[in-house]
Write a structure and sequence with these properties.
single chain; 102 residues; 33% helix
């Protein structure tokens, strides 16, 4: 199977918590992880902190297809998470990188 034939939507998000916000960001991510894993189109949602700098977060995500990813983006709990996160991290939001499965 070629990469363009694979319908999965795969990405990772990275962001850095502001000083004093690391624990709050980790708590929000734990909550979001539970919610996202309930989505029927979610295959993987794995949130981690970097071992070299716990203020830096990395989230790996896989969805069965574009429609499942769109449903994820439209979820109300995701919007609440993003509103909360914006005030707790460096920059304007997560840095997203989309991948092509092999």
């Amino acid at each position: 199977m070629t990469a363009d034939a694979d319908p999965r939507r795969v990405l990772y998000a990275e962001f850095t918590a502001l000083a004093g916000s690391v624990d709050h960001v980790a708590e929000l991510l734990r909550w979001l992880t539970v919610e996202v894993r309930k989505e029927p189109g979610n295959l993987v949602f794995a949130a981690s902190q970097k071992s070299t700098n716990p203020a830096e977060f990395f989230v790996y995500e896989e969805y069965v297809d574009e429609a499942a990813f769109a449903a994820h983006i439209g979820a109300d709990y995701g919007a609440r998470f993003n509103r909360s996160l914006t005030e707790l991290i460096v920059g304007d939001g997560s840095d997203l990188t989309f991948l092509m499965p092999l």
